[in-house]
Design goal:
This is RWD domain-containing protein 1. Pfam families: DFRP_C, RWD. The chain is α+β, with helices and mostly antiparallel strands. 46% of the residues lie in helices and 14% in strands. β1 and β2 (32-38) form a beta hairpin. α2 packs antiparallel against α3 (100-142) and α5 crosses α6 (180-186).
Length: 236
């Protein structure tokens, strides 16, 4: 077999098939040439699609022995060694025949399969993220499930933040009378007046937002010194 003639004829066929894409890098001592491949959705300088450049170099006895293959300029994937191993298998199966077109087609198919896997992983990740966000939103509107003990612990912290405890202590020292609302908020026995009817295993739902704006309520706790319960409204 005239290996040089076989190689030259294949180059002419490849130039026709990959017109405008095949690039001859060297002729002597053997042809070295490059062919770019990419997936259909490939967009340069983005994360869409995969691409690389296959560089081939003939050997003295090609096609009766494998030619040299290198992978360069790969984008959005770093598994070039796996692709080279895949092409090595293809070469061993096609010894004795010109095979560059077969190798390029096999590399193109391999690239498409990898891109499909990447898209699937991205879709699964996006779906999982959406599910977690929806679950977090559902929990936010569901309210906080608490036991009697955790409610009392929260109530103590809440009172401390609102300053009711300090206000009562200050009022006691100064001999001032607390309003009805302040008495309710600072009387610990009132905290447990209803909770004592719950069993240990019971849980209650508490919407904490109901307690956030108590200071905005217009509650008039001042006593009416002129009020007489024995005088009806109609007696006036």
């Amino acid at each position: 077999m005239d290996y040089k003639d076989e190689q030259h004829n294949e180059i002419e066929a490849l130039e026709s098939i990959y017109c405008g894409e095949l690039e001859i890098l060297a002729i002597e001592p053997f042809y070295t040439f490059a062919i770019p491949i990419k997936t259909e959705e490939y967009e340069p300088e983005t994360e869409n699609g995969l691409s690389c450049r296959l560089e081939f170099t003939y050997t003295s006895k090609y096609p009766d022995e494998p030619l040299l293959v290198s992978i360069t300029e790969q984008e959005n994937f770093d598994e070039d060694e796996k692709l080279k191993a895949h092409l090595a298998e293809q070469m061993s199966e096609n010894l004795g025949m010109v095979m560059v077109f077969t190798l390029v087609s096999a590399a193109q198919e391999w690239l498409n399969v990898q891109w499909d896997k990447i898209k699937l992983r991205r879709e699964e990740t996006a779906a999982q993220k959406l599910k977690e966000e929806e679950e977090a939103e559902r929990r936010r509107f569901e309210g906080t499930r608490v036991t009697v003990e955790t409610f009392l612990s929260w109530k103590e912290k809440f009172d401390e933040e609102m300053g009711y405890k300090k206000r009562r202590e200050l009022a006691d020292r100064e001999g001032k009378k607390l309003t009805g609302r302040e008495l309710f908020m600072t009387d610990k026995t009132l905290d447990q007046s209803d909770l004592k009817f719950l069993d240990d295993g019971d849980v209650v739902k508490v919407d904490e937002s109901l307690f956030q704006n108590l200071d905005d309520l217009d509650l008039d706790d001042e006593e009416d010194l002129d009020f007489d319960p024995n005088i009806s409204d109609n007696s006036a």
